[in-house]
Amino acid sequence: MPIRAAVIGTGAISRVQHIPSLRALGDRVEIVAVADLNAASAEQAAAEFGIPAWYTDLETLLETEQPDLVTLATPPIAHKGAAIAALRTGAWVLSEKPPTLSLADYDEIASHEGPEGPFVSYIFQHRFGSAAERLRDLIADGSLGRPLVAQCDTFWYRDDAYFAVPWRAKWATEGGGPTMGHGIHQMDMLLSILGEWTDVTSVMSTLARDTETEDVSFAVVRFASGALCSISNSLLSPRQTSRVRVDFERASVEVEHLYGYGNENWTWTPAPGVDADTAAAWPPAHDVPSTTHVPQFAQFVASMERRERPRVSGDDGRRVMELAAGMYKSALTGRPVGRDELVPGDPFYASMAGGDPARATALIHAGTMTSAREEAAGA
């Protein structure tokens, strides 16, 4: 019996990635319905892809179709309610990024998972390209030595018209700016490579766009391994690029791309003294690009079939949300933040804005670190 899937949200990401990725899995999956608040969009998507049913109401879809799998291609504000509704019916969930608007929301969703499923996973497709998978294997077996220094950069460009979409760059609907909605892709891949982080120091500002949230952010992150990493997120950069670089004891490994990579986007540079034959064995033998969601969708469906927790779920999916919360807390308080601070009761556990969106916007617009320090000094 194929897995019965429903796709929620019928905008561009759904038509370009979700539906084609499910179709690529062949007879393992059957798309039984789509849903969107916009009836015309839902009807058009169903007709375009030959999907038998369309809805404008998620609850009606879940009751009528009883899908095994629900994918969420909706704005971030809608993720929590839709994920919980699907989990309550026993459906597994694969959701677009960012997972939710806060750590509190993330944990609330997780509380509806069962010990053997259903589970929720989040789409961070850059983890699943062959080069990233190969790099993690080399780290695990010690081939590259300890990680020492890293960079994680998302330099993208979004004009004023991009932010005219009502839910974008607002605390209540997107949760934050490029730290949450854009750089989070590279940040998640970085964390999948370097593992647990311990503390972060961050600055943020709104330099050019009319937004509630930041349009640039920078951070320095310390990892449990001792490695140090700089993170840059910008929506103001005409020459767009996405980059992750890690300098190990025995090699520098770097990927530079825009919205997805293949093996050709990676550079493997051996340290002096590493012989050529050893270095030649580092790159992956096969090329699985990260330009589509297919590799992650395939792994998620395989997890469903085995009834096991998928990757990028539970603690594995939560780690990047913790880092984002730490970056906002550091920028808005003007001090370094330890990962162990981000627990229930902390205002940044409940909201990336720290529970006071107006204050967060004012600080970020003013030039956060200086303003936050001055405010603290006067308290």
Automatic annotation (TrEMBL):
* Residue intervals of the Gfo/Idh/MocA-like oxidoreductase N-terminal domain: 3-112
**Species of origin:** Microbacterium gilvum
Domain of life of the native organism: Bacteria
Q: Which PANTHER family match?
A: D-GLUCOSIDE 3-DEHYDROGENASE, UDP-N-ACETYL-2-AMINO-2-DEOXY-D-GLUCURONATE OXIDASE
- What InterPro entries does this protein map onto? Gfo/Idh/MocA-like_OxRdtase_N (IPR000683), Gfo/Idh/MocA_Oxidoreductase (IPR052515), GFO_IDH_MocA-like_dom (IPR055170), NAD(P)-bd_dom_sf (IPR036291)
Residue ranges constituting the GFO/IDH/MocA-like oxidoreductase domain according to the UniProt record: 134-253
Coiled-coil regions listed in the entry: none
What's this protein's name?
Answer: Gfo/Idh/MocA family oxidoreductase
Q: Which UniProt keywords apply?
A: NAD
